[in-house]
Design brief:
Blueprint lengths: L1 H8 L9 H22 L8 H12 L6 H8 L3 H13 L3 E6 L2 E9 L1 H10 L4 H8 L3 H20 L15 E2 L10 E3 L4 E3 L19
Antiparallel strand pairs: 1-2, 3-4, 4-5
Helix pairs in contact: 3-5, 3-6
Length: 212
């Protein structure tokens, strides 16, 4: 009798999108949440999301950066980035210098006030922090693996710009220490590390040579 009831309750196919597409919907919702928090947490300088991205990008590497580098890194356009830099200059968050490699070109760095704003931007807004705290550590590891793999695949197909993450770095050795709690190896610091320590953004990143 119980076996009959189990069979009646079994649903072989659940209608709706397949798991991969459900994941894309979920990632889209998370991206929407990040953008909403960015608008609500614009700070004393009332930064737009793009302006905040520029500040964070410049903070990730202290070297002077040309506008073209910022355009490529943020997958934006020259006019849009130019407007953002002009606004940041007016807010005293960036400074323009002569490019030491080319006196005809200009490069951009953060001012002291810009560095302080970059530190503020590293603080995770409360709604996102509470959402992250609700995720089990093992799930965080799995999500980092999955997100890293998706970003790497998109970069390989040149669908998005290369980001400074472990799996695209020449120092990264995947599964170098099999059957270990820290299976991967970072050649830059010569140390093993676990999935939970995978970096999506690392200032010491050096890209691997890409297949032509």
């Amino acid at each position: 009798m119980q076996e009959t009831q189990r069979k009646r309750c079994t649903v072989p196919d659940i209608p709706g999108l397949p798991p991969q597409e459900q994941l894309l919907v979920g990632l889209s919702r998370l991206g929407q949440a990040v953008r909403i928090c960015a608008y609500r947490d614009a700070g004393p300088h009332r930064l737009s999301p793009l302006q905040a991205d520029v500040v964070s990008f410049l903070a990730g590497d202290p070297r002077p950066r040309r506008q073209a580098e910022i355009v490529e890194a943020l997958a934006s356009t020259p006019p849009t980035v130019s407007d953002a830099l002009r606004a940041l200059d007016g807010k005293n968050l960036v400074a323009r210098h002569r490019d030491p490699a080319d006196s005809r070109a200009a490069a951009v760095t953060l001012t002291d006030e810009g560095v302080a704003e970059a530190r503020r931007l590293t603080l995770v807004p409360t709604p996102l922090r509470e959402a992250l705290d609700a995720v089990a550590p093992a799930d965080v590891e799995g999500m980092l693996r999955g997100v890293s793999a998706m970003i790497a695949a998109l970069q390989e197909h040149r669908a998005i710009p290369v980001s400074r993450m472990c799996v695209t770095c020449r120092f990264f050795q995947r599964d170098a220490h099999l059957r270990s709690a820290r299976p991967h190896h970072c050649g830059f610091v010569d140390s093993p590390f676990a999935d939970a320590q995978l970096r999506i953004e690392c200032p010491d990143h050096e890209p691997r040579e890409r297949n032509r």
